Amino acid sequence: MTTTPYVSRIDRRTTLAWLGGAAVAGLSGGAAATVIAAPDIGGYGTDPKLTHPLAAPWPRLMTPAQLQTAALLCDFILPASADAPAATALGVPDFIDEWISAPYPDQVRDRPVILAGLTWVEDEAQRRYQTDLLHLARNDRTALLTRLTKKPSDPPMAMPYAFFRTFRSLTVGAYYTTRPGFKDVGYHGNVTLASYPGPSDAVKAHLDRELKKLGL
Amino acid sequence: MTEPYDVIIVGSGAGGGMSAYTLTQAGLKVLILEAGRNYDPATETPMFNIPSEAPLRGTSTPDKPFGFYDATIDGGWNVPNEPYTIAEGSEPFMWWRPRMLGGRTNHWGRISLRFGPLDFKPRSRDGLGQDWPITYDELAPWYDKVERLIGVTGRAQGLPNTPDSPEGCLQPPPTPRAYEQFVTRGFNGLGIPVAAMHAAVLTQPLNGRAACFYATACGRGCSIRANFQSTTVLLPPAMATGYLEIRANALVYQVDLDRAGKAKGVAFVDRITGEHHSVAARAVVLAAGACESARILLNSKSAAFPDGLCNAHGMVGRYLMDSVGASASGQFPALENLPPTNDDGMSVGHIYVPWWGYEKQSRKELPFPRGYHIEMGGGRSMPSMSLGAMLSRTDDLSVGAALREDARRIYGSSIGFAGRGEMIPNEDCYTDLDPQVKDKWGIPVLRFHWKWSEHETNQAAHMVKTFLEVIDRLGGTPVPGYQTDGKKAISRGGEIIHEVGTVRMGQSPKDSVVNAYGQSWAVSNLFVTDGAVLVSSPDKNPTLSILALAWRSADHLASLARRGDL
Known about the structure:
Chain A is built from eight helices and one strand; from the N terminus they run αβααααααα. By secondary structure, chain A is mainly alpha-helical. Chain A has a domain of about 130 residues. The radius of gyration of chain A is 22 Å and the shape is globular. Chain A starts with 11 loop residues before the first helix and ends with a helix. Chain B is of the alpha/beta class. Helix content of chain B is about 25%, strand content about 15%. In chain B, strands 1, 2, 5, 6, 7, 8 and 16 form a seven-stranded mixed sheet that branches. Chain B has a four-stranded antiparallel sheet with strand order 11-12-9-15, with helices on one face. A three-stranded mixed sheet of chain B has the order 3-14-13, covered by helices on one side. Chain B is globular, with a radius of gyration of 23 Å. At the A-B interface, strand 1, helix 3, helix 4, helix 6 and helix 7 of A face strand 3, helix 5, helix 9, helix 10 and strand 13 of B. Strand 1 of chain A pairs antiparallel with strand 3 of chain B, so a sheet runs across the interface.
């Protein structure tokens, strides 16, 4: 586990572009019937360029300190393995910042969960070890974070556990939707084939064994 | 070309594109008015892009409800500046619209099933709904033509009310994926036959179009033209005749009549400039989508038609139908740790389950009168953010090496099941004009009224019961979130995006708005060639039938034009 400060993988020029890009508009309403209308909530809009997508236009909300805590959590969840990079090497903390900063309903719902959880983690480090997560001894950091991985029986841990569940889900999603993630999980598609061969003999043999166990 | 055009076509999707293809080949001068912007699949399709290149890893948002890379432009469940309303007391209704050349054919699921003989005579079968004015045999030659033109996979399998195509119509279906071979054995174990998918995807080159190279989901569109889109298959040859003009961003809201009561053209607003225009033609074809076509008729008010054009009997907007939908997923230990393989295939399923309960229904042994088919998704498809949720189903949350191992084990081991069933038209499901709400340009908008009946909710419950049975037979565990109560399991009205029936065809003006050729009973040079004319909504996805009906209608229109009878 790293003790090196996390360096954001988003450059400064991009950050400045986000700061200039946000716009918010109101909802329309009225009438006895329910009006279904499309509010402009400051997202990427309904006609973004698909072949060469632009970076998400909304400003990022995490402070450098929050981003640092997020980075430590990311690499607790998916540190480098012998064959695959760590989550921070793929910019996952920046992605989580992009996610919780987005103006869309699902992301707005996750925002307070993630931000409150990051605060809880740092408060806990101070309370138990009188230092921040970055400067905690490796074993202590692991001990602190491992508590979040078990379903708690004590009510005070319910919030941190729920936070970790969401944070881990975002980390996993972000990680495996990259090319190194594809490789690590065993996604072999997105390449052109002259014809579709269907499953290999090894796959068919595996299936036959399993189906036999099921009596099929 | 100069006015008057021979024919104005409103819309450029399945109905409009097919109409333009047919009419321009017949030498008629055609103007397409498309509400959306121009769109070029060759340069705008995100081929091979992966989630990490898109905002939020391409996850769906209100701006792009089917995900960032979905082909839909300026649309989805909402269209900017074009609201709709849900009547007080109605069940929810959702209305999917794009604003792009080619309409929904750019992103659709490509499932292309012929309606069967029973589907055209539902009232004769069980006393419910209405019979069509045509038989399967009358439409069959047009299905043949459509399949040969657009390219559809499939195989003759001799299943009831699931027509086999004549030799030479279909393209070879691709081999089923591993999970599809697995699930086939499960269904067969329950006595349910499985069939090769009929999908509008080329597995062999056709008319200069390349075969599928088995990468990039069809919903993004296809820059190599291997699947069917109006913009790649119908509009280019129509354009090549020199008889087609297309005007984009032209939102048609009214059909204009001359003194003799015939259509003389349409009025539209330019979505960009806000200017209103009129354009003249000898005939008008509405193919704006079932609900939008009804809206245009309802907004075309005159002394002769105070309640909207062709609406003397109050039938425009009535008999609105969608497909019944319900879904469940299973996770299967038997699929864990399968040797990694390329499962992309033609993105849509390579197999499906046609409705198997015709005999039981004829013996009244099921608590719902009409059938459904089952579509499946699974395998090692390109990872998305949902992998995070899939790995969050345990109390203890693994990290590090254990998490990587869990990911490799769980990935590709789930199968999603979705039922698509027939809805019977009812008096509670219709659309009319909202008395107060208008769009940005002051045009009254549609108000929807919706209520599923027990025919549909019982069917939805049966869908979920079947999914749970096959999941169990295959040793799987259902993924939490499914509903066994049909009222909770059933999709929302419109959600399956098969809305049809608002301008239905029939034998007589007393029970229909248009005749068997989509020709208006009230205005003889006005035709409707989209899903609005459907009399029933069989479980089979409607696009192939819309194409066949549109071709037949446009061919009839062309023959009237040749005879000088427009």
